[in-house]
Design a protein that fits this description.
This protein has 350 residues and is an alpha/beta fold. It has 13 helices and nine strands. It has a nine-stranded mixed β-sheet, sandwiched between helices. Strand 1, helix 4 and strand 2 form a beta-alpha-beta unit.
Length: 350
């Protein structure tokens, strides 16, 4: 939730940031309808007007959405598989910040159930945090759609005056990522006799998809240090733009400014390596790396899947595609270099 001291101009920019989730949702829907992704759950979050729209995203957007989604999914699945070697007394946790309408919880549950059965789900709790305006809509959608509600492990409760939701396996919390003390309180405070949402002693994955670029470098550092100082074992997976001080970046920033958006975090990530250094400087000292989406398409995504995707739509703007994909990256790392080998995640060349 926004601090009371936020100015009207800042509140307006927060609204613009929230609107980017609608863009991401429509991109996932477009990629799903065209066959790039298998995400039936994203359709459930469409508004009636969005559902009636026949707009299709261009191939460049669909291809980028596929590559980004594939890479993050692969790292999340690696983290989930690490839970198989842990005893039942040490399940996993996921903390997804700025999650918006993300459907990864349901997609991962579906894949896991199809391969191993629902009872083997290794995640104690999957927690999402976002602006209250976003969490209230998502909580209401989940509570009213059985396809979503039935995968939450039991009793589902709308909480915090309709702004949040909790269940045995999943929770949505309203919060402002710039206010780390309040975020910490909501994650670890026991309410009504129920256990806290997260346990700092358990292996935990931090998900940050296109989040940090909207925070100042100082607020980003606070957020990352909070995680590394709180959780004894854990990983981070982030998706970010970088290198936006060139002509491409200047055009991008001007276009976003017309929508009331700024990218305060971009000044701290001028290069691909700077993404990894940012994690290291804030306590992620285990093995990690950063790869551009262009590199991921060229050398990481399995050839059969890449060939499948390349046949869906004809793309003529190959240079433009590569230019865009070379300004976005996936980064990952670990809380401690002393973490057990079973908790290693990473993207490997095919």
């Amino acid at each position: 939730m926004l601090p009371p001291s936020r100015t009207p101009g800042a509140a307006s920019e927060d609204s613009a940031v929230r609107s980017t989730d609608s863009d991401a949702l429509l991109s996932r829907v477009s990629a799903t309808r065209q066959g790039y992704l298998d995400d039936p759950f994203c359709l459930l979050f469409l508004t009636p007007s969005q559902r009636r729209s026949t707009e299709r995203r261009p191939p460049l957007i669909n291809i980028g959405t596929h590559a980004r989604t594939w890479a993050v999914d692969e790292l999340v699945e690696q983290f989930l598989r690490s839970g198989e070697v842990n005893s039942k007394e040490r399940p996993l946790q996921v903390l997804s910040l700025g999650a918006g309408t993300d459907t990864r919880y349901w997609r991962m549950r579906k894949r896991w159930s199809e391969r191993k059965g629902e009872e083997s789900w290794p995640v104690r709790k999957w927690v999402e945090v976002d602006f209250a305006e976003a969490t209230s809509i998502k909580a209401r959608t989940i509570a009213t759609k059985s396809e979503l509600r039935d995968q939450l492990g039991g009793d589902v409760k709308i909480e915090q005056g309709g702004l949040g939701l909790s269940s045995p396996l999943y929770a949505i919390l309203p919060g402002d990522l710039r206010d780390v003390p309040s975020l910490s309180l909501s994650l670890f405070l026991s309410q009504g006799g129920a256990p806290p949402h997260l346990d700092p002693s358990l292996p935990t994955l931090l998900l940050l998809e296109c989040v940090l670029v909207y925070l100042t470098p100082e607020k980003t550092n606070d957020l990352l240090k909070f995680f590394t100082s709180t959780f004894k074992e854990g990983c981070v997976v982030a998706y970010d733009p970088f290198g936006l001080d060139d002509s491409f970046g200047e055009v991008m920033k001007r276009n976003l400014a017309m929508r009331g958006l700024s990218l305060p975090g971009s000044r701290s990530t001028p290069t691909l390596d700077s993404l990894s250094r940012r994690l290291e400087s804030n306590g992620f000292l285990g093995s990690g790396n950063s790869l551009s989406i262009k590199q991921i398409r060229e050398s990481i995504i399995p050839r059969d899947d890449l060939e499948r995707v390349n046949k869906i739509e004809q793309i003529d703007e190959v240079e433009e595609l590569n230019l865009v994909l070379d300004h976005y990256a996936i980064s990952w790392s670990h809380v401690s270099g002393a973490s057990s080998d079973s908790l290693r995640i990473g993207l490997q060349s095919r």
